[in-house]
Amino acid sequence: xxxxxxxIEANRERFLAEFGELxxxxxxxxxxxxxxxxADWVSERLQRLGARxxxxxxxxxxxxxxxxxxxxxxxxxxxxxxxxxxxxPLELWESPPYTPTVRDGKLYARGAVDDKGxxxxxxxxxxxxxAAYGELPLRLKFFVEGEEEVxxxxxxxxxxxxxxxxxxxxxxxxxxxxxxxxxxTFYCGVKGIAYFELRAHGxxxxxxxxxxxxxxxxxxxxxxxxxxxxxxxxNITVDGLMAHVRPPTEAERAYIRRIPxxxxxxxxxxxxxxFINDMSDExxxxxxxxxxxxxxxxxxxxxxxxxxxxxLPSSALVKLDFRLVxxxxxxxxxxxxxxxxxxxxxxxxxxxxFVGMVGARSDMMAPVVQTAIxxxxxxxxxxxxxxxxxxxxxxMHTLVQGVGTPGGIITGVCYPGMRMHxxxxxxxxxxxxxxxxxxxxxxxxxxx
Amino acid sequence: xxxxxxxIEANRERFLAEFGELxxxxxxxxxxxxxxxxADWVSERLQRLGARxxxxxxxxxxxxxxxxxxxxxxxxxxxxxxxxxxxxPLELWESPPYTPTVRDGKLYARGAVDDKGxxxxxxxxxxxxxAAYGELPLRLKFFVEGEEEVxxxxxxxxxxxxxxxxxxxxxxxxxxxxxxxxxxTFYCGVKGIAYFELRAHGxxxxxxxxxxxxxxxxxxxxxxxxxxxxxxxxNITVDGLMAHVRPPTEAERAYIRRIPxxxxxxxxxxxxxxFINDMSDExxxxxxxxxxxxxxxxxxxxxxxxxxxxxLPSSALVKLDFRLVxxxxxxxxxxxxxxxxxxxxxxxxxxxxFVGMVGARSDMMAPVVQTAIxxxxxxxxxxxxxxxxxxxxxxMHTLVQGVGTPGGIITGVCYPGMRMHxxxxxxxxxxxxxxxxxxxxxxxxxxx
Lengths: 448, 448
Hints:
2 copies of one chain form a homodimer.
Chain A: H1 2-23, H2 32-48, E1 52-58, E2 61-69, E3 75-81, E4 101-103, E5 106-108, H3 116-133, E6 139-145, H4 155-161, H5 163-166, E7 171-173, E8 177-178, E9 184-187, E10 189-190, E11 192-201, E12 207-208, H6 218-226, H7 250-257, H8 263-270, H9 281-290, E13 295-302, E14 311-312, E15 315-324, H10 330-343, E16 350-353, E17 360-361, H11 367-380, E18 385-387, H12 396-399, E19 408-410, E20 426-428, H13 429-447
């Protein structure tokens, strides 16, 4: 530990300068020069690290920079991205978003935590490891994409094409970091998602509502169809869907019980008197992390402005998202939903499906999970908080379980004040350097 | 008949000139000079007719001009209005809206059919009656208001205050006229209406939809509440509501069967394959005219624009109108709706009620109805089409059944090409003069 810290300290200024170089590229969606600059920087930096680097083409999109370094029986995939969210609104930044600036121990720049910090810290960790222990004892596969902020549209075909290249014995993902009580936090999975628009049609145009006794009302039609998808106690009642939901394991439950969770604070923050069905904190948290959802994200039909207008709408629309847990897939949910509606005579209701994602959940006992926990204990000096899954969705499955990698873990350089996606995005410099320490410890333990 | 026609013919130019005078006032909502001009004209013209005229104050609104003329055991209320819809868009008028212009036997002007035609025709009918038969054999009560196009906001308090003045043995309302096969058409009632906004609330702001397993979703809440108000076969299931619905009488059913109704044409026009529940034309028409409704006029919650956004809405809103038939009142429906929701645990759903109207339906055997039918037969030479009720709503009940008048009938100078509320509103001059004939015949028969 002392040795590792000394190496980091000796390289501190150079590491910061290199981090700053990558942060200088405005690699926003649509900024070709910014994206190319960042991609080239990552590619050259990995080559300087001695990696065998390939540019995986995404057709018209920015390429994935793939680089492999080290040798050994075990392999590890590192997923990160070099693209960033737009910096707008620029006037709210205290220093220019692409001129990295240190204030009060924090480095301010767009992409500082999301996700150039992870990308560069992992490169620096390889250098520090080598300086301390010699050649990297595992094959570390850097997968650095340029389309994360626009939904990674080319990830699935790339994963299919390069499955052998990408496959590893474990994966580290972006995200994770310190919570509001300075506890280091991991996530062992993400939910999948399937997004649908359901549309019901009536007359060719809005009618005077006096015709309601004769003409079908698509808004009522949608209400009756929706009421069959979920009951008033918030249970999903789509035929057969819940049969595909893997219940939380004992290990997952055990880790969930150890997660500090202040339900009262959350309810006060949201301004709600109770969780759904007046659940206990533990039940709410377990459901949050392990249950699928079927959510009305939006509903629209007929006259929606202020005041009264007496019309019979010609169509009605609802936007539904399903957050998916193992073993639900978007394809399966699409089929179950269609069959469920057809079986009840709602064949007229049109379903438009958007691109979905399969969820990912690592076994809590998987080497990548247990190694991360042990490395965090050593580096951060406390028991980390381990979420079996994130409540949100991400494409982890595509690059991990989907290609046969047994597990992945979300780990990174976040903290509550980071302003991710917002003006004045920043990273705490201490977090950055401690994270290099953590990664070195993780590599050492995972290689064994 | 010959004599009546001769009198009308002799006065034709003067009648048209007088009609044109009233049409010259731009009596739109907000045009104080136009409204005052029209009100004064009606008041002075009724005085010249020998009526005892009163201005019934509506506070800050345009006054009701009330005038009574004639003597006899029976009394008749004439309801009409001197205000008009805005003439906008002006550029679509072929002649200026307040410069009455005759083209091809039609008089073009804003208010020609709605509703200055009715108002002046009834004044002229009194003159023609007198010229033919002597003094008017009944007490004709003109009630000419100036706020119809803005929803008659002062009608209810006026009716309460002046009930004795307004009460009569029957009433003639505005509207009615020729259908697309040149059959003269009456309506013996209108539906009432109650309009509500139902709102469900969740968190204080939209949440990331990942929180759906914990945080209540007001859109789902509304769906489940709505699904209890109406079943999938379009039956209203609000507790106790249908018990207050008077079924159609045998006489009403008999008149409905005589109404020419082309369901296939209507369905083709609307672009729907079938009426609700694949009803026959007769059932559809009967339901249209005699059943109450509960219509989703609009629904709105969460993300309603194009594309995907994964949020959990903080609130959801539905706009509902109930078209009311006897014996449903807005107050009753408001109470039943609240009780129904409360009984099912939906007390959190907020109901905002807008001003409602009670429906009106005259007995098919009421003197005013049967007299109108007989007078139409004589004047127009064919059996009129008689609707027990209009499918739309109006304030007839307030001035008729609500003050103890046994029945009212909708009769006027409409025809399919009239462009009511639109640019180039017009009346067929023949309709105008034939309607005077009809009114004379009606007065003669009703007085007996």
